[in-house]
Amino acid sequence: MSFRVLNRRTFQAGAQIFCEGDRGDRAYIVQSGAVAIEKKRADGSLRLLGKIPAGGIFGEMALVDNQPRMATARALVDSVCLMVPKALLEKKLDAADPFLAAMVRILISNTRQAADG
Questions:
Q1: pLDDT tens digits for 46-97?
Q2: Pick from 35, 27, 37, 25: which is nearest to 77 by CA?
Q3: Which pTM does this prediction carry?
Q4: Are strands 26-32 and 72-75 parallel, antiparallel or unpaired?
Q5: Residue 22 class from Cβ within 10 Å (0-12 exposed, 13-18 middle, 19+ buried)?
Q6: Domain that holds residue 53
Q7: 3-state SS track over the chain
Q8: Count: domains in the chain
Q9: Average of pLDDT values for 4-32?
Q10: How far apart, in whole angstroms, are the C-alpha atoms of residue 54 and residue 109?
Q11: Dist CA 32 CA 38 (whole Å)
């Protein structure tokens, strides 16, 4: 995948990138900065699921399994992200070895279940 053709977006520290429950239309690669992935608890407080550093990817789960976003993404510091359109990710996944594509789907399902626990 050539990163030169992907659009970039800058997010200021604290900016929300997407919200839990949103429909996913793109994934993100952190080019610089860092992103927090947070899930709302029943009492309304936020649980930090992870921090995505430069070079990491997030937001891909909603694209692979067509489920709503399972968490909220927020820039921890000023961050630049490359945006990966759903169609590009689907094209890459369709071209992948069927065993590996199935493994990705299983891992995403397991991750969703673990995050809900």
A1: 999 999 999 999 999 999 888 999 999 999 999 999 999 998 988 888 898 9
A2: 35
A3: 0.84
A4: unpaired
A5: middle
A6: 3-116
A7: CCHHHCEEEEECCCCEEECCCCCCCEEEEEEECEEEEEEECCCCCEEEEEEEECCCEECCHHHHHCCCCCCEEEECCCEEEEEEEHHHHHHHHHHCCHHHHHHHHHHHHHHHHHHHC
A8: 1
A9: 94
A10: 25
A11: 19
Domain of 15: which CATH number? 2.60.120.10
CA distance 90 to 14: 30
CA dihedral 93, 108, 7, 94 (to 10 degrees): 10
Q: Distance (Å, rounded) from C-alpha 47 to C-alpha 56?
A: 20
Residue 21 has phi, psi (to 5 degrees) of 95, -15
Question: Which residues are CB-contacts of 102 (< 8 A; sequence separation ≥ 6)?
Answer: none
